[in-house]
Fold this protein.
Amino acid sequence: MRRSRLRRSLAGLALALGASSATAHAEDAPTRPPLDVVVAPELPMETGIVSILSLGRLAFRYEDLLPLGAARPSRDQAPYWVLDRFAWIGKTILVDIPLAGLQALTIHEAFGHGARARELGFDVGYSFKLPFPYGALLSPKDEGHAGLTNYIGGAPRADDPQQLFVSGGIESNVATARALSRQIVAEDGVAHHGEIALYVMSKLSYSQELTAPSFRAAGPPTTSSNDAKAYLSNLQERFGRVRSDDRATIGKRLAVGYLWNLADPMLVWSAWAELHDVIFSSRRFPVAPLPRAFGATFLPLPRVWLAPYGMENELSVTAKKGEWVVDVHGRVGTTGLAPSWGAGASIDDHHVDRRVRVGAQVDVWRQPALDLERRAYFDRPSQLGGALSATLRLRVISGAGVLGKLGAKTDGYLPTQRADAGPYGWVGLYLEP
Amino acid sequence: MRRAGLLRAASALGLVSIALAPEGCDERAEDPCVVGPASTVLDFGGDGQAISVDVVEEADRTILVTWLRVDVRRVTDAGAGPGVTKLARAERARLTKEGALLSRSSLAIPPRLAARQGSTDQVSAAWTDFGVFFRWIETTTGTLPNGQVTRSVQTVTSFVPEGGGPIVETTPAELTCSSCAITLASASTGAAVTMLASLAYGTGTTGALVLRFDARGAPAGVTPAPAFAQPLAGAPIPVGSLVDPPGGAAQLGEERGDLFVFSPRGTYVVGPALEVRAGPLPITGPGAFVRFDAPNDVVVAGPVAGTSTGEPFVTSTTYDAKGAVRRAARPVTRATAVGGVAPIAGGTLFVTRGESGIALSRLDASGAKRGYDVPVPTTATAVALVDAPPLGARLFEVVGPRVDAREVICAP
């Protein structure tokens, strides 16, 4: 290439970057939820989910510093648009996916398994591997788990604590997806693309293992560091179903029940939004097309919980009308080992006045009795239980304040909350961005 | 709703939740059995240390506790030296099922055994109604002029009668050989002693013999062992090499007057000459327990190989005397060994040992697990479980230098 043409090409590239920079903020950032950091004794699951979601939103603010913009795919901007696409793809793969992956993994290990271990009085340690794509690039032969949580000094002997620990990781991911979906409704469908990625990762936690043919294979309960297989083995032992064909039966029921989790319209929209809105159109904040009825937006979503006595399939409907965000949900056991159901409703962060927001949640359930002490307790009485909690967000100064949650529950499994009876909650600070 | 109304509603809901019992709104299950406090029923006492303690229920429903007494003598060599453990006595105590002492005996080991300074293996003592039957193997190792090492073994039996009298000693010719190895197993029903000898030869040949002795230690016959009690075939070894003990040598056990054979070919309940009374039953591994209730009821409880997330699963299967399954395997608990099985009103009680210690598990009459495991607060090294109608069972525990007993009361 002749030097003069090279000079013109370099000038064009500079102009492209400059033009991108000039249009970097063509999409106005919408008002985002507050940044919450909450704590409680033993750092239970919910504190990690709330805080890490906020820290994630903070981390993604790095995009404000990038000269990437919404160059239109028009004829005169085509080269710049192509460059912008490559930049977005590169950023997505090299920064955004690892960032979302790190959030999901930290929640899974430290505030899933780790939270349940702390609740039950056991010490654990963690190991994390390089997130995708760095792990695939820098240690391609290392095919182990992305993260591990190990007991230090002793593990529970009773059946239910073992199962709570094992399923705690997936439980925290399901709860993360639930929190994100409620936030998306509260924000009128607006979501940062990083949160979309996190939603997908959280929803699909262990999906490959739960749907694999080997999961439905016959066999006795065996030790495994795979959460899904360990959960299945623990169910066998919990109910004394140790015959080879018992595992196949239970595994099949779990796999079929898990399909409910995948019938998720938000998953479908997330894939579309990532490809079309984000990578094709450089939108940092895609907007989910929420259904509307009777003047309200609403979002029905399916999910599954790996309860200590079997899988529970849940359907929730989050709705927003005006300043009210309400969620109702119902779940039912589908593994066939013991009957169970649960239902609840919540009001999220309702504006009372410009300084105060309140929320409340009530849950009831009927399930086999949980027992954190005993072993080989195969057939248990069914027990009714419930929980009630309230949240408060109080603005102390302009743009910042305190928040807290206080609740109480009876014995029994309630996702993200302590297994035994007693109070629960957290306190923290928030910052309005 | 206005804020004041919200607060009233929240308060009402709060009162409702506090009013709910912390455990929920249903009854808690009652304990399937209640374990009472332990009380000492036997103190080994005496000089020396009690080892190889065994507690079994006998055919007459008494509890037989047997043990060996060892002396730890200090060998002086111009000063303090290492201690040498020497077997000194065989002792036993007979208790009622309630733990009352009926009799206690102590007999010195035979002089020939006491004189051995080494090359003595497989020492065992079995009590009959009239004394103690000892057996052991004496090994003599030599070197031929051409340097070849030879080893010959000789089996010795020695009966020491209770109350004095001549010791009855035998050295069965069938169990004296060179270039061979012998594994012994013996058990006493009180009225007779059965010894199973598994042999391996340098040629690779293996075999097994049943030697019977009466209650005073006199030989009562030698016959080839049945096929199920034969060891596994071996391979020839080079001349001059030492012969290894035969693989798959069967083990003998005794409980309530019944003899049991545990071999790689199956499990059997047998008579004194190893005639089959029940079986064939499945091969049982370490930690299994077999209970025979004549004439047609065999319960096999034990860890199931391959069922483990750290601790194997214990199942219980009921067979008839022909080895046909009468009740398929039922899950009992997770443990590494079953210490005993006892029938109780409306079901069966199991005592197991696992990572959490010793626990009781109960199956009801239909074979379903009732409730949960009841831990037993003990550090026992051996246990025996006997039924104690009408309320439940009694657990005998060997704890250091004593035997404790505790009641187990099981709700109907």
Observations:
- The two ends of chain A are 49 Å apart (CA to CA).
- Residues 33-431 of chain A form one domain.
